[in-house]
User: Which sequence fits this backbone?
């Protein structure tokens, strides 16, 4: 997203784009299953992120979906020929350049297509640092995968990008949205309540089948670290945003909050490490679900302090 | 996390590629650090892959024994389960379950088989049998 906006003359770092679109979130959806496991998200869904960009930054994006593969391919090629950088929603499973171990059926994966060379697309994928390529046929499969959150060939690109931003106004608004959302979401599955709910579910694993229990724990770690989160389920990238904002606005509370958010990220990493150790243990050893749940609850408390502080920053 | 604490565990899963992690320098300033992998993450991914391989292996053996159809093996081999296969094909779960029966599967129409083959990226021929095992 940062690359896309920079391409259109608005230079913004990835953390700034993430923060200004109010993307930080938490959701635990036990009823939405991915490979038999509940959906756990550390940020808003891509569509909400695009909405956040439009609302907070005044960027205008166009999203196109297609009912047939040929039309979808044709349109992408057209846009690329115009020199556009195009965002695309894909299924991880069909992306040929990803290592086998990472290829699961997850349809919400976003990447940037920035060029075409005959039957090969040039792609920048947030999972990895280097640019990658994908064969046209295989890429079409990834764009038109079926199932939950089916991408339907979705591509998106900006049609209007402001060249300057009023940070004094945008930053407070974007931060307040996140802080309030995390603290006050009324439903028990989102925000800090969602984190506490997940902790409760971890405690209940004690009574569940042990294989399932370990897979569930491992699943949390994968959702937190695997798909281009910048580490610790986007908490570090948000801390980086708070730091950059604090410098821009010369705001001490933001800078302090950034340090606190970094500490929160460290706690998430400790939590992941605890889980990794517990799923590695021998069959005879018992997993201390209560300790893992307690760690998670302490993270919710720690995050609450940061959001409350952020609400006093302006 | 400090720059020098960013894990460089050479994860086999990354295949030599690197991933961006946001970390702080001595004075607390943020920047992107390339990570070659983290043990904890590798452990979790490996566990998930092994579980699917285990299910595929079980289905393979059950299919060889004539207890289930090749469809069950291909489902797990392509990292799907009953729910995701149902969502991808638009078929009811109970129907797919029925197709796990070798006698029912053997009589499936080409049209239905193609529906399965398409979401799994397999040929019509490949989906009707087990692949040969190397070992």
Assistant:
């Amino acid at each position: 997203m940062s690359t896309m906006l920079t391409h259109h003359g608005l230079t913004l770092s990835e953390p700034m784009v993430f923060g200004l679109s109010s993307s930080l979130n938490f959701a635990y959806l036990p009823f939405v299953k991915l490979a038999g496991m509940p959906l756990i998200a550390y940020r808003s869904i891509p569509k909400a992120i695009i909405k956040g960009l439009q609302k907070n930054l005044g960027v205008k994006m166009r999203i196109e979906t297609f009912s047939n593969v040929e039309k979808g391919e044709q349109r992408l090629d057209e846009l690329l020929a115009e020199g556009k950088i195009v965002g695309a929603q894909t299924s991880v499973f069909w992306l040929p350049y990803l290592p086998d171990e990472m290829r699961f059926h997850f349809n919400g994966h976003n990447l940037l297509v920035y060029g075409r060379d005959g039957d090969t697309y040039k792609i920048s994928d947030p999972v990895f640092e280097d640019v990658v390529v994908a064969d046209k046929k295989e890429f079409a499969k990834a764009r038109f995968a079926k199932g939950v959150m089916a991408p339907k060939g979705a591509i998106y690109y900006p049609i209007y990008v402001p060249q300057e931003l009023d940070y004094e106004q945008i930053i407070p608004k974007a931060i307040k949205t996140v802080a309030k959302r995390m603290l006050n979401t009324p439903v028990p599955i989102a925000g800090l309540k969602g984190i506490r709910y997940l902790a409760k579910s971890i405690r209940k694993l004690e009574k569940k089948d042990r294989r399932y229990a370990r897979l569930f724990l491992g699943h949390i770690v994968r959702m937190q670290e695997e798909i281009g989160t910048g580490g610790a389920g986007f908490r570090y990238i948000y801390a980086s945003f708070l730091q950059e904002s604090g410098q821009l606005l010369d705001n001490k509370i933001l800078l302090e909050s950034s340090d606190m958010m970094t500490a929160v990220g460290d706690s998430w990493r400790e939590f992941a490490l605890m889980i990794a150790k517990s799923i590695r243990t021998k069959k005879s050893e018992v997993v201390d679900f209560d300790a893992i749940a307690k760690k998670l609850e302490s993270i919710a408390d720690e995050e609450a302090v940061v959001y409350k502080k952020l609400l006093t920053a302006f | 996390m400090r720059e020098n604490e960013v894990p460089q565990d050479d994860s086999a899963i990354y295949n030599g590629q690197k991933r961006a992690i946001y970390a702080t320098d001595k004075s607390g300033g943020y920047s992107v650090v390339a990570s070659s992998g983290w043990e904890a993450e590798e452990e979790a991914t490996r566990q998930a892959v092994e579980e699917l391989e285990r299910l595929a292996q079980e289905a393979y053996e059950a299919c060889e024994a004539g207890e289930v159809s090749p469809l069950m093996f291909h489902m797990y081999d392509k990292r799907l389960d009953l729910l995701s296969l149902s969502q991808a094909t638009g078929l009811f779960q109970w129907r797919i379950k029925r197709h796990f029966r070798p006698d029912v599967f053997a009589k499936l129409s080409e049209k239905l088989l193609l529906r399965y083959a398409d979401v799994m990226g397999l040929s019509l021929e490949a989906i009707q049998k087990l692949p040969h095992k190397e070992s």
